[in-house]
Design brief:
Blueprint (H helix, E strand, L loop, with lengths): L2 H24 L21 H115 L1 H5 L1 H4 L1
Protein name: Transmembrane protein
Keywords: Membrane, Transmembrane, Transmembrane helix
């Protein structure tokens, strides 16, 4: 932010702070809609409240003026300290820039690559799930085929044992 923008911003804030008591003193004087009905049991407001509203800006101006008088030496001291600290502030600003630049570049790269990261992550998870299901299904089918093959071999072996050759040459086979 340039010094001109800073001066404009500080001036706008000072104007708003100066006009705030005037805003408080004039709010509520114009009614919005019909006046509220006051019950008979309440007491009437004191008549000095309108006088206080009229005096409030002047009463608030006194502390503001005292503060301005007291802070005058502080403003001079602050400007002197600011001028003396300018080289240090500039050096620290450049060091901060050199440190923050790689971090900003890293954050920009992370923000740019985040959609790719999400896409690859979902693709990997989908591949794991589908691949796991397919591998599991294939292993199940192979297991069923092996069980059927073993049963067929067992039946064939039982049939072979029932044949006469096996009974005659039992000692040779066992």
């Amino acid at each position: 932010m340039s010094s001109r923008e800073t001066v404009i911003l500080v001036g706008a804030l000072a104007t708003a702070a100066a006009l705030f008591p005037a805003y408080l003193s004039f709010t509520g004087k114009e009614g919005h809609g019909p006046a509220p009905v006051v019950p008979l049991a309440t007491t009437a407001p004191p008549s000095n409240s309108n006088a206080f509203r009229a005096i409030a800006p002047y009463l608030l101006a006194v502390p503001r003026a005292l503060f301005a008088i007291i802070s005058k030496p502080l403003r001079i001291l602050a400007s002197s300290v600011a001028l003396a600290a300018t080289p240090l502030v500039i050096v620290l600003d450049k060091i901060l820039f050199l440190v923050a630049l790689p971090i900003r570049a890293l954050l920009a790269a992370i923000r740019a690559l985040y959609p790719l990261y999400v896409f690859c992550g979902s693709a990997v998870l989908t591949g794991l799930i589908l691949g796991g299901l397919i591998v599991g299904w294939i292993k199940f089918i192979l297991l069923v085929q092996e069980v059927r093959r073993n049963r067929a071999e067992l039946e064939e072996h039982k049939q072979w044992k029932k044949r006469g050759d096996y009974i005659r040459h039992r000692d040779d086979f066992d």
